[in-house]
């Protein structure tokens, strides 16, 4: 089954975000073992900066897990043929052409030489109460969290342009996750799968966001701080 089919399949899913720069090899291993046991559906790999070689991180994950590894690249330096799939992100909330098409042009010839499954993704950055790395690095403004109509219009335009997924992002370490109201309205209006991430720190929040309509949640910071969160959040997912 392709990664896209896994995301689109009925039921709720959780992806763990592994940022190679933030975790030691030992911490990556303990995250991966816990994810295996808990039945996590996907592992995303990426970050805003990267001083570690992404290939070696993916090798470690692959050697110790059968969970699909999906690239979630913060930059062109984060491409690897060793992953299973690539979220080809278009930062549609922003107006920086490099993150809408420029980097994609630079990456496309290389991506074509790999076996990566490419998943075109409309990536929508929403204010999360603090300035996140994505906002700073991409030099784009997030959509204000209370502008539900703008967020919905952006998601609709993204779907109409042919993106296969919508990713609502409050930013890694966001103080405030994407609101339940926004998640449910976007889900109601689009017909492609919905991913939500940023600031999901507890199983209660995870459950509320899934209940509001997310098909898959992405959790990074909370798991970096406490790997046990994987079990707690997966327990919420298993209720569906
Ligand atoms: C960031 O959505 C992801 O791109 C995860 O965010 O680190 O806040 O869980 P957190």
Question: What can you tell me about this protein's structure?
Answer:
The chain has 240 residues and is of the alpha/beta class. Strands 1-2-3-4-5-6-7-8 form an eight-stranded parallel beta barrel, surrounded by six helices. It is 42% helix and 18% strand. The chain is globular. The model has no long low-confidence stretch (mean pLDDT 96). The chain has helices at 3-8, 25-38, 54-64, 97-112, 133-138, 148-160, 180-189, 203-212, 221-225, 229-238; strands at residues 13-18, 42-45, 69-71, 85-91, 117-125, 165-169, 194-197, 216-219. The chain has a single domain (13-237), classed as FMN-linked oxidoreductases (TIM Barrel). It has ten helices and eight strands. The longest helix is centred in the middle third of the chain and has 16 residues, at 97-112. Helix 2 (25-38) crosses helix 3.
């Amino acid at each position: 089954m392709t990664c896209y089919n896994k995301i689109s399949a009925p039921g709720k899913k959780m992806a763990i975000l592994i940022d190679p720069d933030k975790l030691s090899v030992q911490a990556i291993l303990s995250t991966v073992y816990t994810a295996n046991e808990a039945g996590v559906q996907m592992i995303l790999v990426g970050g805003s900066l990267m001083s570690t070689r992404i290939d070696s991180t993916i090798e470690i994950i692959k050697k110790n897990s059968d969970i699909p590894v999906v690239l979630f690249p913060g930059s062109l330096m984060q491409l690897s043929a060793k992953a299973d799939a690539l979220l080809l992100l278009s930062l549609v909330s922003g107006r920086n052409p490099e993150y809408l098409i420029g980097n994609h042009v630079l990456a496309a010839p290389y991506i074509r030489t790999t076996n990566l499954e490419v998943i075109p993704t409309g990536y929508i950055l929403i204010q999360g109460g603090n300035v996140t790395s994505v906002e700073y690095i991409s030099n784009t403004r997030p959509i204000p969290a209370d502008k539900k109509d703008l967020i919905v219009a952006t998601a609709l335009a993204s779907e109409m342009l042919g993106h296969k997924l919508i990713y609502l992002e409050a930013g890694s370490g966001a103080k405030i996750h994407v609101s339940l109201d926004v998640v449910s309205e976007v889900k109601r209006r689009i017909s492609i799968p919905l991913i939500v991430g940023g600031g999901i720190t507890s199983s209660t929040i995870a459950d509320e966001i899934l209940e509001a309509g997310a098909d898959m949640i992405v959790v990074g910071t909370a798991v970096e701080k406490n790997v046990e969160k994987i079990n707690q959040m997966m327990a919420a997912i298993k209720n569906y």
